[in-house]
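call fold(seq) -> tokens
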Amino acid sequence: MAPEGTSMNDRLLKAARRQPTDTTPVWLMRQAGRYLPEYRAIRGNIAFLDLCKHPDLAAEVTVQPVTRLGVDAAIIFSDILIPVEAMGIVLELGDKGPHFPQPVRTAADIERLAVPDPVEGTGFVAEAIRRTRKALNDSVPVIGFAGAPFTLAAYMVEGGGSKSYILIKRLLFEQPKLAHTFFQKLTDTLIPYLKMQVEAGASIVQIFDSWGGELSPYDFERFSLPYLTRMVKELQATGVPVIVFGTGMSTHLPLLKRTGADVIGLDWRIPADDGRRILGQDVAVQGNLDPLHLFLPREELEGRVVDILKRAGPVGHIFNLGHGILPPTDPEAAKFLVEAVHRHGAALRQGTLSP
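ret:
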């Protein structure tokens, strides 16, 4: 809640609850990142993981895109693997992505993982949220986030990114009981971690099941859905809306709806109106511009914005990219996008949006 005498731009929160807004709210996944020169200026002097753990600097880079782009929310600068490190596994994070020198492969490895106290292990994230709110004077909501159990397990078992996911899938298929034990421990870690973010002032949270689309619908229903559903339910009990997002999950939308999430993220592989039809009108949607469309000429980019706004409709839509913004992106293109969404989103509500 904004302090007395100030007014929070709450478009995002209203859209997440399918309430009317004056225009379509917009934020961008990875909006605090390498495409911004002011971010690179800070990042040049500190390692990524250290930046995540430095509340003052994490808050500063969280605020940067709000100031430059005019987005309707700040998402706290962190990484989905932060709570995993607190479980007792060595994590290396660099420009080439995450790496676990000692991956989780056996029952003994899983047994050794702790369920940490979120404040003791990751309290710097909560502090960064508090400092972000103060820096922004609560002018826009702060988004908290975490990864989904399957996605985090995939990184931990594979030792980093993967093309085939053979090791995590073999764990699921050859030792399903052990896999469920693993996912349960991750869920027991993630729920208090997200609740800590809410207590620090996050007004909405997003769960990233980045690799959930690598599972067949059958396997997703068995190995990811139960844990996502539990996370959503327990987070909603705190009073905040919950967004669930994953890439390559157009075929999983009916399953994602079963999580009970307030908002389902759509990547760029499905038209927004098709996603709406599958999900129904009782859930909000987020998305879904291809991040590479930011490299289009401005007129064509504006046309893509208008098309998505029309397809998604004026109620219960949060404009976003279909995945994270890419480092070579021109910040001015991102600013143009935000301004176009706001301008045409207002026209959509006024009935004056051009064909």
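The two ends are 38 Å apart (CA to CA).
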